[in-house]
Hints:
By secondary structure, the protein is α+β, with helices and mostly antiparallel strands. The chain has helices spanning 8-41, 54-66, 74-96, 101-119, 126-136, 145-164, 168-199, 204-229; strands at 3-6, 232-237, 241-247, 253-257.
Amino acid sequence: MNTRETTGDRLASRVGRALTLVTVALLATSGLLYIAMVFAVRGNWPAEGEMPDGFPGVVFRIWSIFDVAIEGSAPTWFNALLWATLGLVALAAALLARRRAGWFAFAAVAFLASLDETISLHERLQELGWPMAQAFGWGVVYAWVIPGAIIAVLVALALWPLVRSLPGRSVKLIVAGGVVFLLGAVVLETLSGQMVGHFGAITWQNMLVTHVEEFFEKIGIILAIMGVVRLFAIERDGAHDVRVVFADPQGDTVAGSA
């Protein structure tokens, strides 16, 4: 009986490609609907909480579903889904690995981040961030990024022993994912807030930065997912016998039947 194997790198590539396509589709939809909204209202942009009448109102309602700049939209839901996917993959690794504590911690961080995307836990750091911003003399609009960045550094340090023990390519993917995500979630988020404070409203410049920010965040999570997924492989013996193989960095390869 012939054995066919989908290697970890190939599996990670497929997962990454599929998730990236969804990311591009969501952001492109958001951007195109924003442009359509700009032309539909012809400079008469509705005030916050108001809904335009007629055709602009229809466009506005559709755009609000895909708007990357608001919570509770499809892009925000997809972010939560990405974090949950990373958590599930890390949890699977924890169940198969010999040293499980690090993987359970990794999964817990990912699931907490997924919860944050759903109920905006990070925005509750705003009250903590304001005194810190004033102490440093920083006039940031989104002050939550200061304690948020500190928490991110502490999490990275806590997970580094696990990440460092992984194969080189997985380390590069996870580290690159973390850097790209923080560029979006901290650096570009801060820039976006400063633009809102400067212009006094959301402008096309702000929307452009927000779309790039969301792209960086999603791609960062996808890279981390790929870094963990590549530790798994799928072996098929015939039509029905399927095994998921996990290359445990701290031990021998572990397989489970499906």
